[in-house]
Amino acid sequence: MEKPDFPTNANAWISSTAYDLKQGAQDKLLEAGYDEAYSQYLKAQSITNVLGTYIKVKGGDLEKDFENIYDLAKVVQGEHEVRTDHLEYEYLKEKYGENKREAVKDWKPATERQKQAFTYLNQLVRDVDILINERHGHPILGFTHYGDGDKTKELEEFINGGE
Question: By C-alpha distance, which of 68, 66, 38 is closest to 53?
Fold first, then answer.
């Protein structure tokens, strides 16, 4: 990639990501038959494509928070794959031919774990944005190590252990 189409410093990237995560699914996705959970999957995918490659945070509590952001995005992605694991390529080819987009009708609903991971992802990114961009007057939800949050253990238990 020559020139990324996203901010490449952590402060600007986290702010842009916080904004993006708050937005609902794009109308064009919904009109095409996709659901909110698929939109969340795409947002999570954009995070894992950028973190560690273009956005790197080294050292201390902020690095832990960015690792948790990455890990939560991976959970969202992994749980989305659960929705489609039951679909075999040959089945899709036979049922839908070249119009594989129609297979969305056969996806399972989003898992509770995917929904919770996206909620945590949104909350963590929001907290990091408020802290590193010094957005005074906004309450901190407590999900960051950087902000000595009281919910970091809860967040990491979710990431590492399941429900």
Answer: 66
Separation between Cα atoms, residue 38 and residue 55, nearest integer Å:
24
Instruction: Find, among 58, 65, 33, 84, the residue nearest to 130 by Cα.
Output: 65
pLDDT in tens, 34-52: 899 999 999 999 999 999 8
State the pLDDT at residue 1: 44
The confidence band for 126, taking pLDDT boundaries of 50, 70 and 90, is very high
Note whether 39 and 26 are within 8 A (CB). Answer: yes
Cβ-contact 121, 48 below 8 angstroms: no
Contact 116, 107 (CB under 8 A): no
| The token pair that represents 139 in the structure block | 């309450």
Tokens encoding 40: 């969340």
Q: Supply the angle between the helices 36-50 and 112-132 in degrees, to the nearest 10.
A: 50
Structure tokens at 90: 């040959």
Q: Please state, in angstroms and rounded to a whole number, the distance separating the CA atoms of residues 21 and 45.
A: 12
Nearest to 119 by CA among 22, 51, 19: 22
